[in-house]
Amino acid sequence: MKWSQTHLYTLKEAPSDADILSQQLFVRAGLIKKLAPGIFTFGPVGLRALRKFEGIIREELEKRGLIEVLMPMVHPKELWEETGRWTKMGEGLLKFKNRNGQWFCLGATHEEAITDYVRYELQSYRDLPKNFFQIQTKYRDELRPRFGLMRGREFIMKDAYSFDLDKPSALKSYQIMYDAYKAIFDRLKVEYRIVEADAGSIGGSLTHEFQLIADAGEDALMVSDVSDFAANREVCPAIDTNPVKLTSNQESGAPVIPFFEEFATPNLKSILDLETSYPDLKPLLVKTLFFKEDKPEAKIFAVVLRGQDEVNPIKLKNVFGFSQEPIWATDQEVVRVTGVEPGSCGPLGLNIDIYLDNGVTGLPSVVVGANKKGYHLKNVVLGRDFKATAIGDYRMAKSGDQDPKNPSGRLSAVRGIEVGHVFYLGTQYSEKMNARYLTKDQKSQTIEMGCYGIGVSRTIQAVIEQCHDKDGMIWPMAISPFLVHICVLDVKEKALLNLAESLEKSLLSFGVDTLIDDRDERPGVKFKDADLLGFPLRITLGKKGFDKGVAEFVTRKNQNKIEVPLAQMIEKAIEVLKEIEK
Amino acid sequence: MKWSQTHLYTLKEAPSDADILSQQLFVRAGLIKKLAPGIFTFGPVGLRALRKFEGIIREELEKRGLIEVLMPMVHPKELWEETGRWTKMGEGLLKFKNRNGQWFCLGATHEEAITDYVRYELQSYRDLPKNFFQIQTKYRDELRPRFGLMRGREFIMKDAYSFDLDKPSALKSYQIMYDAYKAIFDRLKVEYRIVEADAGSIGGSLTHEFQLIADAGEDALMVSDVSDFAANREVCPAIDTNPVKLTSNQESGAPVIPFFEEFATPNLKSILDLETSYPDLKPLLVKTLFFKEDKPEAKIFAVVLRGQDEVNPIKLKNVFGFSQEPIWATDQEVVRVTGVEPGSCGPLGLNIDIYLDNGVTGLPSVVVGANKKGYHLKNVVLGRDFKATAIGDYRMAKSGDQDPKNPSGRLSAVRGIEVGHVFYLGTQYSEKMNARYLTKDQKSQTIEMGCYGIGVSRTIQAVIEQCHDKDGMIWPMAISPFLVHICVLDVKEKALLNLAESLEKSLLSFGVDTLIDDRDERPGVKFKDADLLGFPLRITLGKKGFDKGVAEFVTRKNQNKIEVPLAQMIEKAIEVLKEIEK
Q: What is the pTM of this model?
């Protein structure tokens, strides 16, 4: 395709509302253009990347027997009321009345729509399993859309939904999708991790996220340096690797801990204050935090954990089976249950449930608040001086923690962009929507479901958030809008343009698509734009080289330059592209 | 593809809300399924037809240099206010407030969005012409959605927008699209007509509709029996072919018309009443109708036309440059200007403008109301007894009228389904949205525009509204979901299934896609479903035939049956398909 025959333009400056680099690059290269906050038009070049990625997804899913359908974007209220999500989804679900006064919403996800689609036809065990997918435009009414396509309002998703006879079969469908997603993201040749995640509002008990690694990612992940273990920090098990160095009297072997004693800590309220004043006690400092479930008249409970640890509200939510993360108790509530304001609170003598993080259990004695203003207690021994209601993993994992899968591995924190998600749903939707089938012996049984998403528009930008340098984008081969970028330097030389055109034609016969920059612009402008657009291979055809019988090949990723005889351009281009693809 | 591996089901009965045959067939074969009124899910087979048609459109447009983009479905109010269409589009434009209280609408068309997309980048004469298209989901809040995909709320359109330097260039772009549409609909091999149409609310002065001929069509068309002339009945010129047979005294040559005289016509109010009582006067009966522009304090005017003719409000609107069709004057208003109630009104002595249809001018004398209750006048002569403000074509064309393009042609009335539309827009949007460019000599000039639509989802159903029989659909090759339907009659015979699979594979290598009905069902059920689904060629593989070494080929369209030796199935299938394609 010729530059002059498509709609391509580049901007020197990114607009001020472009938050992250990939968004800036997308806008500067005209891949997308904002129509409204979080709402974008795809230009011809952006659309090519999108369509290539859609093609990969379609191929991998059809190969695995998935059935493509296309569901509507506008859904009636009645449907979403069947599952209770009309209200449960909150304000992110965009609702409106039509001219007849009936309520509808813009589909943000399609569990309801697909279940309605199949519930009358999937009637017998013979009709199962079935696994459907669609590639379709969705809308989520983001309060603050940002990061371009990565947190937009209108976005393109591939969503899939499996319907199975029973749980074992549903887990098989889950595994098929897990493998399909691996195959899809492997083909992009980008760095990604599959992480265990919190199921969030969609629910379900088995779920994995596919996270593309990038510094600007919204998700905090813990990944292992030796195994493929990766988890969302929110649900990552916390396992110590460095036992606390104890002071001499504990090292003797005999646990002779004297009775706990009070000591004055005026104005020392935070762990940091205590550490600074009592550096010796640092490893023994323990904090007591107060929470309650997020509902009226909920009971206050305490969580006790080491000073340097961070409480993990998602773990608390999951352990206690709350529907939401617990919320902090107010200062007044803390006073009511401890008799003292936060800063001097401790677990001794409390009349409420006490949940002890397992990081504390290794400590022979601990330092805690005395429930008396300006005082703490030391030589406090768990079991002797206070009892825990339960002991568990209530803290955030952190860098240096042990890999739960491989004891020799260590975790480190990275940032990720969620590009795919697989969920085992069980019967939570099919039950409510009465999607049932008759077994071989004519018993009515609820269908088991799974749902699976890939953020299609999000992924193409996320890839660039990972793959770029100071000059612009560096597209992976699989979804690069074009594979070859031909810069014709002297466009008034008809012979050069002819050569470019015949090169394009030959490359196309090998499945290699080409953009020809046929603008009457300076070489510097063309090279800058080629770097910005970031297609894998740039071929420069100039008058000087032409007279010498050579072209210049530049690999975008490493800016490797070689001179190639004109007669060998095609075979060399194929060779270089194969090299890049490795 | 195997029946058992996709999601295919057929219904004996169409749902009661399916209004027309094509919709009933689509629903019965599971091609679409209603989610809400006017909102449908495409099943896997329906989606295949859709995608094939999209592929044809894409091919023909890209071949002609159009640039594909993808615009959003959600548009901000501010954009539509620039052209005044936020209010002008009326309630069909679905509007909503987002969670931040900002107004948006669901795009029903994209003139505003595309003009915004290009107005900052198309700055110089060097950037023009450009012609963009997208294939995208739109929404129109139909008051009473009906006819399935043909008048749905959510629908898929191909819309295109051209941007040009000046009118001659814009008309060239128009011609390119006109030719592209011809190529697209020619490939479907269906009966369609290109008609001159009224520009309606989109505006513009040059416009053609592509109308697929079908009895259930919503549009009344006049088509010629000899030329390619076709027009929407609303704008079709009305040209008489049969001059009125006059009575003897007029035939003498000398126009001796006595002075007009009153005659009593008690209780004869309608033309039909008069015809019945005075059959001799029938060809001379003329009616006088009263209208006014649809706005406050508009003047009443009269339209005079032959008794058997029908007034054409669209022609009146266009002649007078009204924004809407004129409305009928009330009985009170008629009394005010004529002194008498409708039924006895005539053009004589009126103080208002009188517009005379040119069908009247051929009559030597006419019969009109006397503006006196229960009386009419005969021997009334135009020019002598009353004067017309203007004479023109104000009537509806009718069957038997003369082809305006070819005097030997006769028009007949048919029904059409509008599947495509091309508009020359001029500067009406670019002016309001300030889309301008700099000419070679640095003058600022408004960009010329055109817009072009194809109802993608509508067309695939419209095609079936034309192509079906009592047993089901008859797909044209170009968009048939599958080309071959293999019925395996004895699915427990492994050899038969194997044969079907290898046949599918061989056919695919020729680009022929196949559905294998591998259900354990009676032959009658399978044949019925094959007829309903309507793919061009059915191949039946049964045990009996297999033992004899033959298969049965049935052409869907004419139910032609032949026996084909198993070894010749592939070449014969290709041959038969080529025959059907002719």
A: 0.89
